Amino acid sequence: MTNEQNIQQSTRQSTQQNIQQDVQRADSKTILVLGGTGKTGSRVAERLTAQGLPVRVGSRNAEPSFVWEDPDTWEAALDGVGAVYVTYYPDLGFPGAAEAVGAFSELAVKKGARRLVLLSGRGEEGAVNSENKLKESGADWTVVRASWFNQNFSESFFLEPVLAGELVLPTADAVEPFVDVEDIADVAVAALTDDKHIGRTYELSGPRSLSFGDVAAELSQVTGRDITYTPVALDDYRAFLRENELPVEFADLFALILDGRNADVVDGVEEVLGRKPRDFSAFAKDAAATGVWNV
Predict the structure, then answer these.
(1) Which of 42, 294, 26 lies closest to 188 in space, CA to CA?
(2) Which of 21, 84, 92, 218 has its CA 20 to 30 A from that of 163?
(3) For the chain, what is the radius of gyration of the CA atoms?
(4) pTM
(5) What is the mean pLDDT of each run of 10 residues along the chain (295 residues)?
(6) Is 114:78 a contact under the CB 8 Å cutoff?
């Protein structure tokens, strides 16, 4: 072998080693899951970990800590991160959310986390502002717009009313195609790990629309207790939120479904996962079996 051939072979080997190292570095980059202890985030983190992927939970009590209201915590949380599952609390449509999401997204891209998957809400104009801010960062983005969660009735928000036996809400006869967070988590993981979802916006719902009266009836059936639904005026609900020191903006989220904008079933779950979404009845049966609604 000539000296020139030796040089060419050495160059090829070096190039191959560099490529392998680049792949290893890309594979070893951490995925940051914001809201990693929440309803969707905890499930996303569990699925990614089960796949053997490095995961960092982004939350107030994590190490390093991540707090949306404290931008000084963002940079450490992003160290060594290649992708982020972005959830914002309390809601993307709340004042200041778009600015925070935009600033975080710009920092994420600057630090090397180009892959951003944002959990958004269906039919929320305010949330679209946050979506646009994330896209403007230059990230490889995916937006997941979800209907209201089945697990709102078992893990937060509506749990106490269900235990009390009465859902008192300003939703009249409006219907919502509630979506299961297990489906949301599966979609989010697919978006984080497969480049074919870059630049896509998916709308997720369950397989059928239910009124809150329908929900109360289904919950009554699986719990063996009488759970009722009582509609109230929106202003009365705002007063209730103020009295309990809760954000009054939650009332505006209820108002969104009153005009029927989210009443229709959509096919985002099936488009991404190739299967039908989980039905509310299946969720209610499984949740009841855990004893979460026992009193």
Answers:
(1) 42
(2) 92
(3) 22
(4) 0.88
(5) 45 41 54 97 98 97 96 98 95 91 98 97 91 98 97 93 94 93 98 98 98 97 97 88 83 77 95 98 98 96
(6) no
